[in-house]
Design brief:
The protein is α+β, with helices and mostly antiparallel strands. It has 18 helices and 14 strands. It has a 6-stranded antiparallel sheet. Bound molecules: 2'-deoxycytidine-5'-triphosphate and magnesium ion (MG).
Length: 467
């Protein structure tokens, strides 16, 4: 094996049943058990399932009720996002010891460009084993599956090939032959709408797509046809970008009863804003971005997000922006729409220790903001000493009790991608990441662009989630 055989060496590493494995690592009683990570409420969705629970059919994004029907003996454990974030940081640091080019795709997976490193680390099999050992050591015992190829696409398919604890090497000259028998669902961009479409055209395997006439593909699939054929030929020139996963902090509440009125939704936003603000201040973060998410009773997801001119950690400011977004979200929709989930997230976080961002922390030009902030800091201290219920807002004390209480709050400190607490839609998703996770191909020209104005950059999306 020499570097001539490998024009590029690209590793894709993806942790096995990540959240579930972290829970099993931290609580040995859970080892070997069918485990589901998600809210205890049957109205929530499964974030992930241990491999033991997957045998009965429980899996990510499945409604909890369905997963428990399939796997009634499963132990349900609510997520601890901060712990996953902490382990993710250890994993990404371990990857960084192998190469300066690490592209994190989510908390638990990354591409690592090892081109030119064969002389240092040995041949690909050796590299893979060292990466697996490094992750095991850095996390205290978590397993990662690794795929190594000379393109991102093939490496990604390879890491999934022998999960869990898999190590699959696909040398460049074998890539096409290796891909050929795979089902078309393995093509990036062949999601739940596209796979049946390909099958109706008689294209069942990646080899079928590779051998099809380009004219036929263009006529029946447009640009998507050429995109798929190029992947089927193992062509994927994309480079590994150096990218860290951006942090966000949020709170999604699946309600026990649907809500309709703006006041009721605002009530949940207020509580989430208080909680997120408190945690931002506690951890020394401020956020540039605020996002509101609503899910209708029939599972349609509406999100809208706003970038602020200056970062904030004020609960009042978070709430004010969230309320604004809520009103914009509601205007075009039917007034009687019922909502089952209300979510608020602070994203694009900056830390006070981050030297690049010092400017934002020194000169707060709005003294009102400062005043509100010191009041909030005083409230934080009370909450810390006497618990979250110690301070209530006057508006909350007067509320009628007709609004349902919520399921345990899914608070998280996680990356934008891992914000698949709601797997149906995440506007921050990079389309390539979506393709890699089985979503449908979106041609470039139809991709939404972000409208710009002087003060705000914002983006919104209404996803029917009909798939
Ligand atoms: N996740 C989520 N919602 C989803 C999918 C995933 O919250 N719809 C979270 C839980 C997962 C983590 O992200 O543990 C990583 O996602 P993966 O798709 O890599 O799934 P796992 O690591 O759990 O399992 P696998 O072994 O298949 O990679
Ligand atoms: Mg994983």
């Amino acid at each position: 094996m020499n570097s001539k055989d490998w024009p590029r060496v690209i590793v894709h590493a993806d942790m096995d049943a990540f959240y579930a494995s972290v829970e099993q690592l931290d609580d040995p009683h859970l080892v070997g058990q069918p485990l589901i990570i998600g809210p205890r409420s049957r109205r929530g969705v499964v974030l992930t399932a241990s491999y033991e629970a997957r045998k009965s059919g429980a899996k990510s994004a499945m409604p909890m009720a369905e997963a428990l029907r399939r796997c009634p003996h499963a132990v349900v454990v609510p997520p601890r996002f901060e712990r996953y974030q902490q382990q993710s940081e250890a994993i990404m640091r371990a990857f960084a010891d192998f190469s300066p080019s690490v592209e994190a795709l989510s908390l638990d997976e990354a591409f690592i460009d090892m081109t030119g490193a064969l002389e240092i680390f040995g041949e690909p099999m050796q590299i893979g084993k060292q990466i697996q050992q490094a992750v095991l050591d850095a996390t205290g015992g978590l397993q990662v599956s690794v795929g190594i190829a000379s393109t991102k696409y093939v490496a990604k398919v390879a890491s999934d090939f022998e999960k869990p604890n898999g190590l699959t090497i696909v040398p460049p000259h074998k890539a096409v032959q290796w891909l050929d028998p795979m089902p078309v669902s393995r093509l990036w961009g062949a999601g739940p709408k596209t796979v049946p479409r390909l099958q109706r055209l008689g294209l069942h395997t990646i080899g079928d797509v590779r051998r099809a006439s380009p004219l036929f593909l263009r006529k029946s699939l447009g640009n998507m046809g050429a995109h798929f054929q190029s992947l089927a030929n193992a062509n994927d020139p994309r480079k590994v970008a150096r990218r860290r996963v951006a942090r966000s902090m949020g709170s999604d509440r699946t309600l026990l009863q649907d809500v309709t009125s703006t006041a009721d939704i605002a009530h949940y936003l207020r509580r989430s804003a208080d909680r997120i603000g408190r945690r931002l201040r506690d951890k020394g973060y401020r956020c540039f971005g605020v996002r509101v998410k609503l899910k209708t009773h029939d599972f349609r997801v509406m999100t809208r997000q706003v970038l602020l001119p200056a970062p904030t950690d004020s609960s009042d400011e978070l709430y004010a922006v969230a309320f604004d977004i809520l009103q914009q979200l509601r205007t075009p929709s039917e007034p009687s729409l019922k909502f089952r989930l209300v979510g608020l997230a602070a994203y694009d976080l900056v830390h006070e220790d981050d030297p690049v961002q010092l400017d934002f922390f020194s000169g707060d030009e709005f003294s009102g903001r400062d005043r509100s902030r010191s009041l909030e800091q005083a409230l934080d201290e009370v909450t810390q000493r006497f618990g979250a219920g110690a301070v209530a807002r006057a508006a909350d004390l007067n509320r009628s009790s007709t609004v349902a209480d919520t399921t345990p709050n899914l608070d998280f400190v996680a990356d934008g991608l891992a914000m698949e607490v709601d797997p149906e839609h995440d506007p921050e998703h990079d389309p390539e990441h979506d393709y890699a996770h089985g979503q449908d191909y979106v041609p470039n020209e139809q991709e939404p662009s972000l409208p710009e104005s002087d003060e705000f950059l914002d983006d919104w999306c209404f996803d029917t989630g009909s798939d």
